[in-house]
Design brief:
Largest sheet: 4 strands, antiparallel
Structural class: alpha+beta
Strand order of the largest sheet: 1-2-3-4
Distance between the termini: 60 Å
Number of domains: 1
Shape: globular
Helix content: 10-25%
Length: 119
C-alpha cells in the first residue's frame, strides 16, 4: 500500500503535468475551479468542477473520436482529481501551439486557421 502522507502533492503535480518542461508549460496557466458557477446562473444551476485556461474551458467529446478539447463551455469533471487527469490528457488550446514571447529561443512558424482556408 502507498502511504499518501509521504507524497508531496506539489511535486507530484509538477511531474504529472510536466510543468517544468516546455511541452507542459501551458498547463501551469490552467485553473481547476472546484465550485464554478457561470456569470448568470439560473436558480437551479449547481456548482461544477471545471478546468479553465484563459477564456477557454475543457470539455470531453462523447463521439467516436473521444478526446478532451477547449471550448467556451466546460464539462463537469466532478472532482479536482479527475480534472487533473483530464488536464494531463488534454492538448493545448490552439493559441498555445504557436510561439509566444514567453518561449525564449523557440523557432516556429505562425499558423492561423484563416490561412488554411485560402486556395
Amino acid at each position: 500500500m502507498i502511504d499518501a502522507s509521504a507524497i508531496n502533492v506539489a511535486e507530484l503535480l509538477k511531474l504529472l503535468l510536466q510543468l517544468d518542461h516546455f511541452s507542459g508549460a501551458w498547463r501551469s496557466k490552467a485553473e481547476i475551479i472546484p465550485k464554478y458557477m457561470p456569470p448568470y446562473p439560473r436558480p437551479d444551476t449547481k456548482p461544477r468542477c471545471v478546468v479553465k485556461l484563459g477564456d477557454n474551458f475543457l470539455r470531453h467529446s462523447k463521439g467516436p473520436l473521444q478526446h478532451h478539447f477547449w471550448d467556451m463551455y466546460g464539462d463537469d469533471y466532478l472532482t479536482p482529481e479527475l480534472a487533473v487527469v483530464a488536464l494531463m490528457q488534454a492538448d493545448p488550446p490552439f493559441k498555445w501551439v504557436v510561439p509566444h514571447e514567453e518561449c525564449d529561443g523557440v523557432v516556429a512558424f505562425e499558423i492561423s486557421l484563416a490561412d488554411e482556408a485560402k486556395p
